[in-house]
Amino acid sequence: MHTDAPAHESNARSHLTIQPFGTTANGAEALHFWLENDAGMRVGITNYGGIVTHIEVPDREGNLADVALGFEDLKSYHTNASYLGAIVGRFANRIARGEFTLDGKKYSVTANEFPNGNPGQLHGGKIGWDQAVWQAVATIVDGVPTVRLQHFSPDGDEGYPGAVDVTVVYRLLQDNALEISYSAISDAPTPINLTNHSYFNLRGEGHPSIAEHMVRLHADRFTPIDENFIPTGELRPVEGTALDFRSAHAIGERIDADEDQLRKVGGYDHNFVLNKSEGRAFVLAAEVYEPTSGRVLETWTSEPGIQLYTANSLDGSQTGKSNRTYGPRSAFCLETQHFPDSPNHPTFPSSILEPGKPYQSRTVYRFKTR
Fold first, then answer.
1. Of residues 15, 32, 54, 197, which has the active-site annotation?
2. pLDDT by residue (tens digit) across 86-106?
3. Cβ of 312: how many Cβ atoms within 10 Å?
4. What is the CATH code of the structural domain delimited by 8-369?
5. In this structure, what are the phi and psi dihedrals at residue 260, rounded to the nearest 5 degrees?
6. 51, 103, 131, 312: which has the highest count of C-beta atoms within 10 A?
């Protein structure tokens, strides 16, 4: 591990601070990076799992609050079963039965989820990239605090074919936006689907509810799921369902509606098919407004889908930075992604990374006030 920045680097009001973050169970040293822009927004990132630990942004009165769920110490992240803030891969979201066929060969990847007793893989397996200590390079580039993370995943890692070199770059822009750029190359065809799994509460992490957050998704369709949380293959219109966020609705308004898709997961945990007109690769996918604070989160992405997840599985057993527990529906995730179980659905956008054709993906989380 290395960094080309000193312990503290500044440019105008932008700052980059690097601190020790503890030692993993296998003895690897982790680092914690603080990025601050000229407006005073601060983001904390650790190279353990590429986790975004803090996002401090102003409300409409200029008061800062941390809107990202997370922990203050590395040890707490060792049992981060909910993937708080982490980079997830090699394949984000789910793969049915932990199996797929590629170029005529069947592959079995590590199963780490068992809905209704049926095996499947979630977010890359038992030891996914969320648990890796990534190589880190941090600096300020043209006034923009930047952390570049790199990881090597060998052939056979969690059952996947091909050796993969992956790079994730975090940049804190001057307009209060956190930009995440992903790239990867492989020496053999392999599925790849990367995302960041940050949990947001625009009232501040530790606030018990996101019910009043107003959500708008630029998606006319979604991928409905079966009883094992796996897409059926259908691209279903959102019209006439509680998943219709084409105009803004409060999260709590319809989350307990008597609809099969909501009952299966106890709320929202669905992939939405983003509206993309020809020639528009990078689009506004989602807008979330919290009326008490006035904070707004825009999500822009080059990905074809976005997963709205309302933290249904948080159970109050985790205590966060505010010393308050994280319960169900105390946060939301907007995971930009290829569709879940894509390797098993040839009609979905392909998630196969071919040798000589680098994987590229970009997402921006932009914070504003209203």
1. 197
2. 999 999 999 999 999 999 999
3. 15
4. 2.70.98.10
5. -60, -40
6. 51
